[in-house]
Amino acid sequence: MNDAIRTALTALDPSKPEDWTKGGLPSLEAVRELVSPDVTREQIDAAAPGFTRKHPHLEAANVSEPAPAVATDAPPILPGPPALAAAPAIEEAPATTLDAPAVAAAQVEESKGDLYRVEKAIANAESALAKISPRPTPAEEYQRYVANANAQRAARAEAARLAPPAGPVRSKLDQRIAARNRMERRAAQNGSRR
Question: How many whole angstroms separate alpha carbon 163 and alpha carbon 64?
Answer without folding.
Answer: 93
